[in-house]
Amino acid sequence: MTTALGMPAIRRDPAVAPSTAGRPDAAGLVDRFGRVARDLRVSITEKCSLRCTYCMPADGLPAIPRDDLLSAAEIARLVGIGWRSLGVKEVRFTGGEPLTRGDLVEIVRLSALAAPGIPLAMTTNGIGLDRRAAALREAGLTRVNVSLDTVDREHFSRLTRRDRLPAVLRGISAAHAAGFAPLKINAVLMRETLSDAPELLAWALAHGAQLRFIEQMPLDADEAWQRSEMVSAAELLDVLSSRFALTPIGRDDPSSPAEVWAVDGGPAQRGPATVGIIASVTRSFCEACDRTRITAEGTVRSCLFGDDETDLRGLLRAGATDDELADRWRAAMWGKQAGHGIGAAGFVRPVRSMGGIGG
Ligand code: SAM
Ligand code: SF4
After folding, report:
1. Could you identify the atom of ligand 2 that is nearest to the CA of residue 96?
2. Does 47 sit in the ligand 2 pocket, CB within 6 Å?
3. Average pLDDT for residues 84-97, to the nearest whole number?
């Protein structure tokens, strides 16, 4: 088994900035296919407290030298530029595991100051959230998505290579108590936990959380993903339908990747009884993608599957103005590829795995 721990091609030299030939004089993050990126994902670390088999290698990713990580102030500056100059409407912190970063509260606080009023969200595995949920909310974090694939402790341990389910559940309770609502739960569809899906949905409904299943993408560091083995949205619907009556509702909004079903048979004690499915592989939504990504080392990544990254950290540390940084970011997004191409002839997996990109 090989492990993908390489680094993508990164454009560092301003002399080889991405081509903007044909780009209209637009302020926003437009690309050649008419899409406009407004949803910013910022990865803040490669470190993680879990080792999910669909994401991380068993030994974790190689550590990024501390000086190579963007600082809290640098992250906030880029968030501010995205919001003020580039039309970014929402920011999500991710990783690796954001809660492993000691200065997470500072990152949120400075970002909230740099982009007043913008929704600031975080995707997390929930471990350690019990100690920081209240401080994060106070600092300006507005939404939390917790990743949880099963409520079966043994299955959780096997999938994440860590026996930490109780810590995740404590984190979810703390997020509720701190007022993060609606709390969203993300679950990656895996064959070994497929039969746990109805129980996970019942658990989410009983706890007033909105559950969304995500088809597994070929972004695991171990490169074990196989199209023939992955669980599809259709297969999940069959399994859920054995316990719940599901009625399709459609997408929350056209750019939302999740298709939503009403769950009539669920024990909806709190919150709306719905379940979402993000069929990233079998019903790709690349044509409506509105995402732009900044990696923990400060490169712009226009697509999860595009290894061509453009460095902003070097420019930023060399004293570039906000306008210069915004221009480089725009140029990077103009080159965004049409789609992930999974299943197409000639598809090549990206060099980075999910934990190294920021999901
Ligand atoms: N550690 C945090 C967490 O797990 O929520 C944030 C980073 S994680 C990379 C972000 C999201 O990506 C999680 O919801 C995770 O389940 C999802 N993810 C990771 N690997 C994936 C894969 N191969 N396919 C689909 N989703 C994946
Ligand atoms: Fe860590 Fe999140 Fe990747 Fe799991 S999905 S290994 S929690 S970064």
Report:
1. 8
2. no
3. 98
Distance 352 CA to ligand 2 centre (A): 14
Q: In the CATH scheme, what is the code of domain 26-357?
A: 3.20.20.70
Comparing 169 with 270, which gets the higher pLDDT?
Answer: 169
Q: What is the mean predicted confidence (pLDDT) over 155-172?
A: 98
Closest residue by Cα to atom 14, ligand 1, is 147
**What is the predicted pLDDT for the residue at 321?**
98
Distance 130 CA to ligand 1 centre (A): 20
What's the pTM? 0.94
What pLDDT digit, counting tens, does each position of 10-54 carry? 776 655 678 899 999 999 999 999 999 999 999 999 999 999 999
The Å distance, Cα 43 to ligand 1 centre, comes to: 12
Share of the chain above pLDDT 90, in %: 76
For residue 122, give Cα distances in angstroms to 147, 197, 269: 11, 23, 26
Which among 43, 214, 236 is the best mutation to test ligand 1's pocket, defined by most ligand atoms within 8 Å of the CB?
Answer: 214
